[in-house]
Amino acid sequence: MTTPADHPKLAEYARKLRWALSALPEAERDGIVAEMRSHVLDRLDAGGTVEQALAALGPAEDYARSFHDAYTVTTAISSRRLPQLISALLHNVARSAAVAAAALVIFIAWAIAAVSVYLAALKLSDPAHVGLWRGENFEFIGIIDDPSTGQELLGPWLPAIALVFILIAWGLTHILGVWALRRLPRQR
């Protein structure tokens, strides 16, 4: 005779749930599967069936997604590593206006940093034609054909400025990323 805890549909759901949670550490998976089993058994004690309890949970992949998302966000916040922060932000950008705004500011900061690094590399390869230029009718940063038509304002400082922009983008990613991820609405 099988007990409700040994029900084949419950065992199959637990197997699918464990597989859907495979990216999480084993202890986390075990805890989530045990919590799911407890939830199903509580519903059975209240007079429901295994099928009804599992239907209320939804597909195992969907049930696992909220746990996986929460784990990803928690890991990104606690590690404060750039790839995890950016990945968690991009994955959750549609869930929160704060995350979307932070992601936009971070994207703009990294775009400015990338352009400044590009210009710094050009400055190192052709210092006479690359810089921040001002003339009678123009001001721009970039490459000039005839340096005698303008005055270069930055001199050798373009690579140092690029480094500052990288540090600003890195700092904004950490500060805004953690701030925005902490404000995500809880799932389930």
Architecture overview:
The chain has two domains: 1-79, no CATH class; 96-188. It has seven helices and three strands. It has helices spanning 8-20, 26-45, 50-57, 60-79, 82-92, 97-125, 158-182; strands spanning 130-134, 139-143, 151-152. A three-stranded antiparallel sheet has the order 2-1-3. α4 (60-79) packs across α5 (82-92), α5 packs across α7 and α6 (97-125) runs antiparallel to α7.
Tally the beta strands.
Answer: 3
How many helices?
Answer: 7
What profile does the largest beta sheet have?
A: 3 strands, antiparallel
The strand order across the widest sheet is 2-1-3
Q: Which stretches are poorly predicted, pLDDT < 50 over at least 5 residues?
A: none
Structural class: mainly alpha
What's the SSE pattern? Answer: HHHHHHEEEH
Q: Which percent range describes the beta-strand content? A: 5-15%
> In angstroms, what separates the terminal alpha carbons?
35 Å
Please state the CA-atom Rg, rounded to the nearest Å.
Answer: 27 Å
Mean pLDDT over the residues: 91
Number of domains: 2
Categorize the overall geometry.
rod-shaped
> Percent of residues in helical segments?
55-70%
Which terms summarize this structure?
188 residues
Topology of helices and strands:
Layout: H1 8-20, H2 26-45, H3 50-57, H4 60-79, H5 82-92, H6 97-125, E1 130-134, E2 139-143, E3 151-152, H7 158-182
Antiparallel strand pairs: 1-2, 1-3
Helix pairs in contact: 1-2, 1-4, 2-3, 4-5, 5-6, 5-7, 6-7
Question: Could you give a quick summary of the protein structure above?
Answer:
The protein has 188 residues and is mostly helical. It has helices spanning 8-20, 26-45, 50-57, 60-79, 82-92, 97-125, 158-182, and strands spanning 130-134, 139-143, 151-152. Helix 5 (82-92) crosses helix 6 (97-125).
